[in-house]
Amino acid sequence: MTTYRAEYEKWLDNPALSEAEWKELHDIRNDDNEIKSRFFAPLEFGTAGLRGTMKLGLHHMNVHVIRHATQAFANVISAGGDEAKQKGIIICYDCRINSDVFAREAACIMAGNGIRVRLFDALRPTPELSFAVRHYGATAGLNITASHNPREYNGYKVYWSDGSQLPPEHAAQIAEQMSKIDIFTGFTRADYDEAVASGAIELIGSETDEAFLQHVLAQSIDRDVVSRVADDFKIVYTPFHGAGHLLVPEALGRLGIKHLYPVPEQMVIDGAFPTVESPNPENPEGFYLAVELARKVGSDLIIGTDPDSDRIGTMIRSGDEYVPLSGNQLGVLLLDYIITAKKAAGALPEKAAAVKSIVTTSMADAVCEANGVHIESTFTGFKFMAERIAQWEAEGSWQYIFAFEESYGYMCGDYVRDKDAVTASMMVAEMAAAYHEKGMTLLDAMNSLYEKYGYYAERTLNLVMPGLDGLEKMAKLMASLRSEPPAEIAGETVAAQRDYLSGEMSVAGLGVVGRTSISGSNVLYFELKDGSAFIVRPSGTEPKIKIYILVHGISSADCAARVEKYSAYAESLRK
Predict the structure, then answer these.
(1) Helix (H, G, I), strand (E, B) or coil at 203
(2) For residues 518 and 292, what is the distance between their CA atoms, to the nearest angstrom?
(3) Full-prediction pTM beyond 0.70?
(4) For strand 234-238 and strand 140-144, is the pairing parallel, antiparallel, or unpaired?
(5) pLDDT tens across 506-538, in order?
(6) 99, 147, 407, 532: which is the annotated catalytic residue?
């Protein structure tokens, strides 16, 4: 009997299954492919925790996997001794199906292990969890969320005491513990009602919201400009059925926005996301209801946040149409606005600095260079940006004012260590109001920045590789690009290659000529002769290879042509 069949039989015969769970597994007994897909391997626990589709089985998200992971997480916390257990854990969840159930189960496991638990009384944004970990001085944090993934997904996102996602060493410790614990019998669980009654599980809510919002509003640089345009400046907002539904409107209202129009259908909390195919603010098609409302009320700006409210997307009025800004464009706009507004207010630190990821637009570098602001790049993920910011703080060197990445994530302020769509929504509203006073939209503003700093364009392509052989295909493609790197891409010579896994920097004909400043991540970065960048990396949460194309040209048309040329080459890698 194959290993996955043996694991299937172990689950099927286990008395821990409910009758409904037993039936779910029994019904697939003649479907070997389905059994294999559920039991061929456990979900891999990494620095982002776990993420997968909600089904019964070892390779999916379900209550048994939640208990298993939480016991392992509890063991790692407990290794820190009584002080770590008393500082405890903050647990949060989003709108997804089963998120509240999974969060409560995780709370029961933690309490059963003598770890103090603060559990949010309802769904909350991911950045508020990051804030709460720091605010309460907790040892760790946990959010049950799958961020912007489709409705069938859920996830287990883990944080450490600094408020950022789990460092690699702790993720490895949790994974090691999971390998030693029996999924059905290896956990200790407290009764929920008894734990709440005894104080082992403490419910938190409005008082934490208020503390968080005070920090959010403190990021405003020029609230007066909002009041000056408030009578005729309009914003439509959608939380895509998720956790931004309360705090984003509250933050915008406190900023001074008078005309805010939430999309009624999408203010309804619903993990089935009935009004959209995918609740991802990166996808303009998901904004159709917001666009309908914006046309009706004559809105200047549309803001959308994903289900756990850590990502933000925008659409800007252009005549009768609404046009999306990319994650890179919005990031550059915010970076330039924060620098400019802080300079005007006399609040820009002497050693101001920004952080971005290596796959984010190089236009950010041009903005910083022109304004005398230091900028550095890290691997993709805010845990790496948070780590860099912490290093600056420890050294007393640079003072960060903004961090962002191309995938619609933005962070400012020292109270969160993750992307934050609540604060970003407020900052975008203030920025848009400032340009509104000048008679400009954010599209006008973006065009003015191109004229000032030069023309840039970017595109991210996803080479989806699903199925049991998806991981194998992804590994094969990365291995091929390493062993036989292309001498040219779409007819353009590859001037240099950076392998961020090994840290080697290579030049054609010369071989290895140096080392990258950071290493250890599976990313290949090809520098082209025309100044463009072609970057390849496997996704850490989904079965796909991500390809980033970054170009710099003499005009928008020139940039667009280069992006299309390199995109065609990227598509050829699917074969």
Answers:
(1) strand
(2) 46
(3) yes
(4) unpaired
(5) 998 888 899 999 999 999 999 999 999 999 999
(6) 147
